[in-house]
Design brief:
The chain is an alpha+beta fold. The chain has 2 helices and 13 strands. The protein has helices at 59-80, 143-154, and strands at 9-10, 16-20, 23-28, 31-36, 42-46, 49-53, 83-90, 95-99, 102-106, 113-115, 122-127, 134-140, 166-169. Strand 11 and strand 12 form a beta hairpin.
Length: 188
């Protein structure tokens, strides 16, 4: 039995789960999420919790069991608490600002980079006072979309290994390389 798949998902107050034609819909205080699940997996709602059951112990059903349970648990957490990722901008002259709902960044190119948020995503930009570093907060209710949007923003200017300039996740360690080593004088 899948150790993850057999765990029940507790439903907080105000969260409703319904299933129709292979799709599951989770409605909560922050919004509504809908996703198509593997058709063989059965989702049962009882006693304020959600259970995911599989029809057989075949390899494919075992692998889908834990996946389906995790997808439903992420949807329940998303509509109650939401998800967020934080990016940091390191580099002299690198900055970010909001222009309406869009994010505008200056990250070392000859032009600014404008990022339009995906549906259900909000950006927040703040500047740390003591380090003059900009912090971008990406939030939404769908874990997959929040992670994808953060990855796309980070890909605009990945951190480089010599000076560490660029966009990185909060807490991400950048492995630094030594620069050129200087040779002493003109030798024979």
């Amino acid at each position: 039995m899948s150790r993850i798949g057999k765990l029940p998902i507790p439903l907080p107050k105000g969260v409703e789960v319904s299933r129709n034609n292979g799709a599951i819909r989770v409605k909560g205080p922050k919004g509504t999420l809908e996703r198509t699940l593997p058709r063989d997996m059965e989702v049962v709602v009882e006693d304020g919790r959600v259970l995911v059951q599989r029809p057989t112990d075949g390899k494919e059903h075992r692998s889908l069991h834990g996946l389906t349970r995790t997808l439903v648990a992420n949807m329940v957490k998303g509509v109650t608490d939401g998800y967020s990722k934080t990016l940091e901008i390191h580099g002299v002259g690198y900055r970010a600002a909001m222009q309406g709902p869009n994010l505008n960044m200056q990250v070392g190119y000859s032009h600014g980079v404008e990022v339009i948020p995906k549906p259900g995503i909000q950006f927040e930009v703040r500047q740390e006072t003591n380090t003059r570093m900009f912090v971008i907060q990406i939030s939404g209710i769908d874990k997959e979309v929040v992670g994808q949007q953060a990855a796309e923003i980070r890909a605009v200017r990945k951190p480089e290994p010599y000076k560490g300039k660029g966009l990185r996740y909060q807490g991400e360690q950048v492995r630094r390389k030594a620069g050129k080593s200087a040779k002493g004088g003109k030798g024979k």
